[in-house]
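User: Okay, second chain of the day. Same drill as before: sequence in, structure tokens out.
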Amino acid sequence: MEKRLMASLALLVSVCLASSAAAAPEAAAKIAHGKYMVQIMACNDCHTPWKMGPNGPEPDMTRMLSGHPQQMVMPDAPAAKGPWMWAGAATNTAFAGPWGVSFAANLTPDKETGLGDWTEETFIQALRSGRHQGQGRPIMPPMPWMSYRSASDEDLSAIYAYLQSIPAIVNQVPQAIEPREAQ
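Assistant: Same drill. Structure tokens below.
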């Protein structure tokens, strides 16, 4: 009896190891596809703070996808005048316009300040609905969620997998500020 139990356990362990070994390349391929999608969808353009480099402004990849820097307190936004309807911070992470002031979110997997406590379903629903966590406040301009909601479930799932695989960065992004007349 004991030999049978040991043989069954050994078989179970072998099956589990084989399954996880087969899943590893699939997971790596999904993460690689997500990285590709993040690159072509220009997520770093707004969610990675910019700095001045030797050839001009460039994303600061030491803070990749961490959103608007928490230590950068923005002054009051300039008033929109004439054809200039919106303004952006030098970091390209804060934006002001008729909607008020919005800040690029922390997309890293930090559990307190990023997407670390989001589920894949919540992430996909947010991009489909244009609402924070799929049901909260509206996702503010200039985030082009209206275009991204057309991505396939497979693409959005891959983006989520990639974002969960990058280093977590603690960075508390400020809440959006309502337009002056609404305050």
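The longest strand covers residues 50-53.

User: Thanks, on to the next one.
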